[in-house]
Amino acid sequence: MNRLLRTLLVFLLPALCAPAQAEDSIAIRDRRELALERGTARPSHHLSLVLAYFEGGWTPEVIRSALRKSARLLEQCGVAITKAELVLLAAPARFHDFHTPDSRELASALPLGKPTIYFVADTRQQPAFDAEAIGRGNSGTRPELKDTVWVVRGARDLDIVLAHELAHVLMDSGEHSVEPGNLMREDTAPQNNYLSGTQCARLRDTATANGLLQPVR
Question: Domains along the chain?
Answer without folding.
Answer: 27-215 (3.40.390.10)
